[in-house]
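Review form for a predicted model. The reviewer records the input and the model, then writes brief findings.
Reviewer: anonymous (R2)
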Amino acid sequence: MAKKTVDNGNIGEPHCSFCGRSEEKVEHLIAAPGDNVFICNDCVAICKSQLEEQTETTPDRVDLLPPEKLKEELDKYIIGQDDAKRVLSVAVYNHYKRVNYNLKNAPRSSRGRDDERTVSERNKSDDVELNKSNILMFGPSGCGKTLLAQTLSKILKVPFAMVDATTLTEAGYVGEDVENILLRLIKNADYDIAAAERGIIYIDEVDKIARKSENVSITRDVSGEGVQQSLLKIIESTVSSIPPNGGRKHPQQEFIQMDTTNVLFILGGAFVGLDKIVSDRLGKTRIGFGGTLHGEKTADDALPQVQPQDLIKFGLIPELVGRVPVTVALKDLKSEDLVRVLTEPKNAIVKQYVKLLDLDGVKLEFDESALTAIADKAIDLHTGARGLRTIVENAMLDIMYSVPSDKSIKKIVITSDTIQNGAPPQVIKEAA
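Model under review:
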């Protein structure tokens, strides 16, 4: 601690080294290691206030991984979808590199603002303005869209919120206002506004709020085009007023102010039929002797070639399409991919059941035919990876019920017959 010499007329008497007041003029005088160095209770309170203010006005930077490392972390939890993971890794890296830049150059208080402008507005004096690039993911159900968004937030240690777009309606109608999306993020950030302002929001089932045709409707589309219009302001960059308890706004209540400039919005949906729109566009050709015949493209071939005009034709409004410039196409998972999902990730379903039975002293094995049968059954049900847990749960129910009571069981082997026909698994017991 640096010593500050103050002439207070009490030479030789103990006095505060900061304000210079003597022991008689303060409530407490705290001695520090060293000769004649003291601090009073008032100066301690001032120091504490300054430290708290510095903490409030300087949000933590996001610990950012380069794209290659980010993809490596995603590989630990998500099987396949390599192209999608590469695109996401680059997009997320660029987004949070921009966030860290904005936090460094325009720190904001977590309890209030003297300047209600967005970060982008405050940075217009810079030579280069870094704009936000939100993300749109499309692919069949159960291919990993939600898991990708959740895993990214976990890796980056930022708050995460997920909402179903079908529950949203325009302001004034029965349903949920779009501002309540931000409230969910704030709650998941333990009401730390600064942390929420650099979080991730995943809006699922966006394809369900597409308008029914390209023609502009003269009637109200309460949960379709109207919701898309309402999403525009929070997805771009705005200081949004949010009711602290959710629900509808009314003039008498107080609002939470939140800047959405640094929030990453990831929109997802199955977009059934989008591949046909792309295929029709790519397949347009002259008819006649000079025409070219194109083979029919599969969804996996067509979706990576989506263009903004395809999304507009599907039913998204042009303004929303312009705010999600990064598009990520996910492929339908094949049988071999689903087998890897069952066994390879850190939180693989098979690994979880093996561990659970190991705690009871029982060894559990799934033979290769059983794993393939589980994957094939999920494909038949058109549930993708989402249906794997349900299939395994149903097969394991009787085993999990009886094993804790039968201490003689030492090993259980799950076969394809168990999965396909509900036959009992192979049970190996301790020799009598």
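Findings: The chain is about 40% helix and 10% strand.
Further findings: Residues 82-105 form the longest helix (24 residues).
Recommendation: see findings above.
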